[in-house]
Amino acid sequence: MFDNPVPFDRLLKCPFGGKNTTQSVLLRADNRPRFMDAVANQKWSTHLPWLTINFIKIYPDKVLDFMFLGSVRTAQTVTVYHDLDIKYVLTVGRGLEVVIEPGMHHLVFPIQDFPEENMSGLFLQAFDFIDAAREEKKGILIHCFAGLSRSVTIAAAYLMKAKHMTCDEAMQLIKQARPAARPNEGFMQELLNYQRFLEIERAKQ
Q1: Residues 38 and 75 in one domain
Q2: How many domains does the chain divide into?
Q3: Active-site choice (111, 144, 156, 181)
Q4: What's the pLDDT tens digit per position in 91-142?
Q5: Coiled-coil annotation: which residues (predicted)?
């Protein structure tokens, strides 16, 4: 992992930098936002055509300014917490080993990624935890094992409740940040049921 962006001028002076070179270099790097911004803004693909970057997905995806979705690997990397000012971690899974620093808040839902699991029964407790991070103006990481199903379900339900989104709208926003997001069929049905519940509750107001 790079603590600072790679100096661009040094890469330009690399002996592989000639336009007609037949040699290539593979760089493996964590998907640290600051580094990825440098790659894009400095147009590395144009100026460094001999360089191929293989990004390792460690950093989470930002759904809201304070809410991030990630995997268990994200929750094992304290640099992520420091870089993104994450003080709250919501773990949705059983037996997932995470790293929590002193002063952080950690909530665990020991749920398996099975369609028959009851996710909706956890929504209100999850919302309170997420709102605590928002009110403190700190980041929250919501994660499961891969960050595709269980954590996505919690995030989607929160968007539906807090932002008055439909299930489709919530999933669309999440997939803009994390395209592989895909709750299992049971969780998707719970989200649709939750949408109907919210519609009925709002109609009463």
Answers
A1: no
A2: 2
A3: 144
A4: 999 999 999 999 999 999 999 999 999 999 999 999 999 999 999 999 999 9
A5: none
> Which domain covers residue 145, as residue numbers?
61-204
* pTM of the predicted model over 0.85: no
Q: Which residues contact 61 (CB under 8 A, 6 or more apart)?
A: 68, 69, 70, 147, 177, 178
Cα(182)–Cα(164) distance, integer angstroms: 21
Domain boundary among 19, 37, 56: 56
Report the CATH number at residue 75.
Answer: 3.90.190.10
14: annotated active-site residue = no
Share of the chain above pLDDT 90, in %: 71
Angle between helices 150-162 and 167-177 (to 10 degrees): 120
